[in-house]
Amino acid sequence: MQTDDRAELRRRIREILEEHTADHPITMIALFQAITGEVVIPWRRYDQSRIVRSLVEELRREGMPVAHKSSAGGGYYIARNAKELQPTVDWFHVRALSSLRQEAALRRMRPGELVKQYELELNRQEQNDGEA
Questions:
Q1: Same domain, 51 and 103
Q2: What CATH code is carried by the domain that includes residue 53?
Q3: Is residue 13 a contact partner of residue 56, using CB atoms and an 8 Å limit?
Q4: pLDDT of 4 higher than 70
Q5: How many domains does the chain have?
Q6: Which of 115, 75, 83, 117 is nearest to 99 (CA)?
Q7: Does residue 80 surpass a pLDDT of 80?
Q8: Distance (Å, rounded) from C-alpha 1 to C-alpha 99?
Q9: Which DSSP string do the residues of 16-68 spell out, in sequence order?
Q10: Are residues 60 and 117 in the same domain?
Q11: 40 or 115, which is more confident?
Q12: Is 72 helix (H, G, I), strand (E, B) or coil?
């Protein structure tokens, strides 16, 4: 995929998500079809939806409040306030803690010790980012 194509897909996602709210989210499949014009092929669904997940991640990293509902009738939408965004933030939090516990167990250390290591790494990255 060309960089220009990716920028265009991001623009389309941004426009489409602006039309969707917590009460009316858009599903991953519908979003994929809307931005690409392609039909979702059942046995390629995961690969086809990967582009949507990747672009949504980029938009979130830029600060766009893209939220999601994971229940039936769920999908993506733009959170209009902190209350609408909170379930998505909670989902990331639970997922991060689960990964942290698994990593700590594999390294045979307490999760708190691992968090301290991460804090040191993050501080170094912030210093390097500030120097760049």
A1: no
A2: 1.10.10
A3: yes
A4: no
A5: 2
A6: 115
A7: yes
A8: 31
A9: HHHT-BTTB-B-HHHHHHHHH-PPPPGGGHHHHHHHHHHHHHHHHHTT--EEE
A10: no
A11: 115
A12: coil
* β-strand pairing of 66-69 with 75-78: antiparallel
Note the pLDDT tens digit of each residue in 107-132: 999 999 999 999 999 999 888 888 86
Residue 85 has pLDDT above 90, yes or no: yes
The yes-or-no verdict on residue 14 having pLDDT over 80 is yes
Closest C-alpha to 58, from 24, 7, 118: 7
Q: Are residues 116 and 70 in the same domain?
A: no
pLDDT band at 1 (very low <50, low <70, confident <90, very high): very low
Strand partners, 66: 78
At 15, phi and psi to the nearest 5?
-65, -45
Same domain flag for 55 and 92: no
- For CA atoms 55, 83, 95, 121, give the dihedral sign: positive
Residue of 5, 11, 9 lying closest to 32 (CA atoms) = 9
Question: Which amino acid would we find at residue 103?
Answer: E
Average pLDDT, the chain: 89
For residues 56 and 15, membership in a common domain is answered with: yes
